[in-house]
UniProtKB/TrEMBL annotation:
One of its GO terms (molecular function) is sodium:proton antiporter activity. It comes from Streptosporangium subroseum. This is Sodium/proton antiporter, CPA1 family. Residues 16-399 form the Cation/H+ exchanger transmembrane domain. Belongs to the monovalent cation:proton antiporter 1 (CPA1) transporter (TC 2.A.36) family. The chain crosses the membrane at residues 6-23, 30-48, 54-76, 83-105, 111-133, 187-206, 226-247, 268-288, 300-320, 341-366, 378-399. It is found in: Cell membrane. Keywords: Antiport, Cell membrane, Ion transport, Membrane, Sodium, Sodium transport, Transmembrane, Transmembrane helix, Transport. The keyword Cell membrane applies. InterPro entries: Cation/H_exchanger_CPA1, Cation/H_exchanger_CPA1_bac, Cation/H_exchanger_TM. One of its GO terms (biological process) is sodium ion import across plasma membrane. Gene3D superfamilies: 6.10.140.1330. It is a multi-pass membrane protein.
Length: 528
């Protein structure tokens, strides 16, 4: 078997999962640790080079789809202006800035090729930033904006990249008209394909009524959508995101089995793919370095630092004014007083510019005979590694330094949940009383009382959560005591069932069925 193929299939996944498991247990940032491990291991696999098709066809669609399913369509719609300014405006601005910087440093490189490099390193990969943001409790608005940017910025960057590469190869002209037309065609086409496929897939999933089959179809969905869109030369990224947002928005109407299985499937998929992706980034160090001509190493180092600095500061220069400009214009021309943008949030968004594997995949997709390809690969690698390590390592410290938290949002969420639980419980109890009064079934009073008690307990738990889940002076609330005691009961019950299986008093099939019921009850206790 080919060495590179063996690395891709077996060695990289095993190492990635092991390292990610250790990082999670130690509370470290998994993406950063995985990148560092990849850098260390890179000399051991000098012949391995990243296959761009592996990233763009295998890794990118499911990661985008999973992020879209987990995102809020309504929040993205509410924050569409800042998301558009980042995913479209910032990518265009960064492409221009880096393109001109590279052209000044390498005048022998065609301007179109310089802009191609700018498009390659323009889109940040928000996986690492969002992972840190959620763990440290950033406000929901900041997380939504970062997620929205990461969902759509690849489409902008890849479109610009294709236009610039075609112009550099003499297959077209990188004019404003050509770029605008290509972007509009790719984006509008991607949206149309996404909307049509989302409508069709939603009806297909609704007709299946089988959790296992539904989730199998959803596993194939991002690959199929991406292939269909790219085959007609429109943005597969946008199509996948549109389908994911639509399916995710409708997921609460699916069966509970579909939701439970879907959540587990995509959590495993995300962990598996993201772990491999960040190791692959580090593994590219040796093949990229070995392809360079190091006769003028100081010039290469200076160029890499300049491009890295341009990528970092271009984001700051764009984010700061555009964060306040829409509010200023609304107040100036429409007489409205928008909510002020907290400068701490602006600082966080401006520093969350870590690049990822999509940039490296685009760089490796540059034709082998392309002028300046080794240097472009090196500059891309430095920007990706530099932003991941410099910004990634300092990102948690910046969040703590600015003392940003989502405590107020959590309190508001708990209050809204308690009110919703109260209304839902009232509706459920009213329906129960109707059924009993109508004599739909001969119901024993004990059963009715159990149903009332469970509904009331869910409401009580939601209100107790507003007080932090404890009673006065740190005492446990009744709901907390109930969950703790019931979990202890389930532990010993599970042990009894396992002992019966070991003694051949029940079969494995019986044990699995019983354990599944116990697991489901224990899962509800975690949130009940």
């Amino acid at each position: 078997m080919d060495q590179a193929l063996a690395v891709q299939i077996l060695v990289v996944p095993v190492i990635a999962i092991a390292v990610a498991a250790v990082a999670r247990r130690m509370g470290w940032s998994s993406p950063l640790v995985l990148v560092l491990v990849g850098l260390v291991l890179s000399p051991l696999v000098p012949g391995y080079q990243l296959d761009p098709n592996l990233i763009l066809l295998v890794f990118l669609p499911p990661l985008l789809y999973s992020a879209a399913i987990d995102s809020s369509y309504l929040r993205l719609k509410a924050f569409r202006s800042p998301v558009a300014l980042l995913s479209i405006g910032l990518v265009l601005f960064t492409t221009l800035v880096i393109g001109w910087v590279v052209h000044l440093l390498m005048p022998e490189l065609p301007l179109a090729a310089a802009f191609a490099l700018g498009a390659i390193v323009a889109p940040p990969d928000a996986v690492a930033a969002v992972a840190v943001a959620r763990r440290l409790g950033l406000p929901r608005k900041v997380v939504t904006i970062l997620v929205g940017e990461s969902l759509f910025n690849d489409a902008t960057a890849l479109t610009l990249y294709r236009v610039a590469i075609a112009a550099a190869l003499g297959h077209g002209a990188a004019t404003w008209q050509a770029v605008t037309f290509e972007f509009a065609r790719s984006a509008v086409g991607g949206v149309l394909i996404g909307v049509v496929l989302a409508w069709i897939l939603a009806r297909v999933l609704l007709s299946l009524r089988d959790a296992l089959v539904e989730n199998t179809v959803m596993l194939l969905t991002p690959f199929a959508v991406y292939f269909v869109a790219e085959s007609v030369h429109v943005s597969g990224v946008i199509s996948v995101v549109i389908v994911g947002l639509y399916i995710g928005h409708r997921m609460p109407r699916a069966g509970f089995g579909t939701r439970l299985l879907s959540d587990a499937v995509w959590r495993v998929m995300d962990f598996f793919l993201e772990s491999i992706v960040f190791v692959l980034i580090g593994l590219q160090m040796w093949p990229i370095m070995s392809a360079l001509d190091w006769d003028d190493r100081w010039k290469l180092t200076g160029m890499a630092l300049a491009v890295f600095a341009a990528a970092v500061f271009a984001r700051v220069v764009w984010v700061v004014p555009t964060s306040y400009l829409p509010g200023f214009l609304a107040r100036r021309f429409r007489g409205r007083e928008p909510h002020p943008v907290a400068w701490q949030n602006v600082a966080i968004v401006s520093w969350a510019g870590m690049r990822g594997v999509v940039s490296l995949a685009a760089a490796f997709a540059i034709p082998l005979d392309f002028e300046g390809r080794p240097t472009m690969l090196f500059l891309t690698f430095v920007v990706v590694i530099g932003t991941l390590l410099v910004q990634g390592l300092s990102f948690p410290a910046l969040i703590r330094r600015l003392k940003i938290s989502n405590d107020r949002e959590l309190y508001t969420d708990n209050l809204a949940e308690a009110a919703a639980q109260q209304a839902a419980a009232s509706a459920g109890l009213a329906r129960l009383e109707e059924l009993v009064a109508e004599g739909v079934a001969d119901v024993h009073e004990d059963i009715v009382e159990q149903l009332r008690s469970r509904s009331e307990r869910r409401t009580l738990t939601a209100w107790e959560r507003l007080g932090g889940g404890t009673g006065q002076e740190g005492e446990e609330t009744p709901s907390t005591i109930y969950r703790r005691l019931r979990r202890e009961m389930l532990v010993v019950e599970r042990e009894v069932f396992v002992r019966f299986r070991d003694e051949r008093r029940i079969e494995d099939e019986v044990l699995r069925r019983i354990i599944h019921e116990i697991d489901f009850e224990e899962a509800t206790l975690e949130r009940d």
